[in-house]
Amino acid sequence: MPAIVKALCLGLIVALTASANVAHAAKEAKGKKANGQANAVFAIPKEITLTAEQQAKVDEIKKEQGPKVAELTTKLDAVLTDEQKAARKEANAKAKADGKKGKEAKAAVDEAMKLTDDQKKQQSEMQPELAKLQLSIKEQINGLLTDEQKTHYKVPKAKKTK
Question: pTM for the whole thing?
Answer without folding.
Answer: 0.69
